[in-house]
Structure formats: structure tokens, C-alpha cells
Amino acid sequence: MTADTLAISGPGLSAEINPLGAELWTLRDGDGRDLLWTGDAAFWSGRAPILFPIVGTVAGDTYRVGDTAYTLPRHGFARRRRFAPVEARADRVTLRLTSDDETRAVYPFAFQLDLAFAASGARLDIAAELTNTGGGPLPASFGYHPAFLWPLPYGAARAEHRILFEVAETASAHRPDAQGLIVPASRPAQLDGRTLTLDDALFADGALVLTELKSRSLTYGAATGPHLRITAPDTPHLGIWSMRTAPFVCIEPWQGYADPAGFEGEIWDKPGIVRVEPGARRSWRMGIELLD
């Protein structure tokens, strides 16, 4: 544990959360084995960033609110901001980001974003709650971006790992172009009903983006031995990403995704944007459970 992270644990799982970005920093089983990517910059320095107030890329890194243009980098600014701890106990922690002059310069809305992490048994539950603290409607997307070790530390080879969806999904997915924008035409995704077999070639052209996700849970790992179950009841989209030969795979429940190539609308027209009325709240939950 670093001096800055907040540690929580249950009988079968432990985690550390970094207040910088409210990022899940480590996730370990009851024997101390890592399940989460360690952020080796030789591949990718991220671990499990939080995506807010957008998911993916806006065209030219610019979006419009009415006639005014604003600049936002890919996946927004929350992952680069320090969240303030508002609760810290042995099995749970809550961190908060509130709008300020810096956020309003690029996102002219008042908000409060809470990230709550709770460990119970061999399960970690994460809940993001967005509150509109302003006087007008608030447009937002939100996403999780955890990178899990591939392979998991239980002896199975990378080639044996798969994602098994709750229900059968479409056999196609969208891909980003060189600018990170979503290509309108879908492409084969190597999905066979409920099963997505993982291999390096799958990510040769970048992430897979499932824009019409039916499942609200999936499992990741080999067909035998310990594996992970990921639940995301509130997010209608999913990104799956890795880098060729990288020892991780990102399984990313999203509300929203990148602009389609050629998109010229304002932020209210961006795919997956939700409208949060003044004083209202919107929540997105994610669970990660280790199964035998």
C-alpha cells in the first residue's frame, strides 16, 4: 500500500483506492494474489480509471453546449482530479469530486460525483452517484475502465481465457477509427452466442464497443478454476480493450461512448448522454466477485 491509497478488505478480497481519480489501485484475492493490472507504463500506466463527464473521444476534443465550444480530452477530466475522502472504514470508503472553477472552465455545470467502494466476502461493490447541484439540466456520461490481469493468477494460459456473457450478444461490435471516433459500420467481434474468446488479434484494431449490450453480468477467466464475475446493472454499453501481447484486458461498463465519425451535434445529442435535472441524482453500479 502506498502512503496515499485507502485500503479496504473483506474475508476473501482486498483493495486499495487512490484518491487521485478515485481509481481502484489494487485488487487481490484472499491469498494476496493480484487480480488487477499493476499499471506498468511499459504497456499502459492506467489501472482502473473513472470516465466522466464523457466516455471516449469527442470529435477534435471539442464539444458544444448551445453555441459555445468547450475542450475535453478523451474520457474527460475525473481521472486526473483528486477526490476528497468523505468516509473511510475497514470495509468501505467513499470519495467525492465537486465542480469548481477548473471543471467549469471545460464543463460548465455544477455537480457532485461520489464513488463508494465496499468489500464483502470475495466481492467488491463500486457505486458512482452523480448529483446535479446546479440550477439547470446536466448532461453526462460515465464509465468504468478496470484492467484485469490476463491471465489471472490461477495457472490457466492466456489462450484459455474468455468472457462469458449473461445472455447471447450480437456477433458484431463497433470499432474506433484513428481519431478514437466510432465507425458507424459494425464488424465481426468473434462472439459465439454468449462466449467471446480472447486473443491478441482481437485487439489489433483497438477496442470492441458493444453499443446494444443485453447482458448485465458476465464472467471472465478460464473455463475451469477461479474466475471473476462482473455485474453492471445500470450501464447499457460495454468496451473491451487490450494492447497486443499486453498482460491485461479491460472490461469496461459504460453509459455512453465516443462520438460517431462525422458527428457534429451538441453534447445533448452525443450517444449515451443522460440528462440529470436540478437536484436529481443518477447512479451507476459495478460489482467484481471472485468465484471458485
What's the main sheet like?
Answer: 10 strands, antiparallel
Kindly state the mean pLDDT as a whole number?
96
Rg to the nearest angstrom? Answer: 18 Å
Uncertain stretches of 5 or more adjacent residues: none
Q: So, CATH architecture? A: Distorted Sandwich
Amino-to-carboxy terminus distance: 26 Å
Element order: H for helix, E for strand: EEEEEEEEHEEEEEEEEEEEEEEEEE
Output the strand order for the largest sheet.
Answer: 7-8-9-10-25-21-20-14-18-17
Described by its quaternary structure, the protein is single chain
Structural write-up:
By secondary structure, the protein is an all-beta fold. The protein has one domain: Distorted Sandwich (Beta-galactosidase, Chain A, domain 5). The strands form six sheets. Strands 7-8-9-10-25-21-20-14-18-17 form a ten-stranded antiparallel sheet, with no helix packed on it. Strands 4, 12, 13, 19, 22 and 23 form a six-stranded antiparallel sheet that branches. Strands 1-2-3 form a three-stranded antiparallel sheet, with no helix packed on it. A hairpin with a 6-residue loop joins strand 22 and strand 23. The two termini are 26 Å apart. The mean pLDDT is 96.
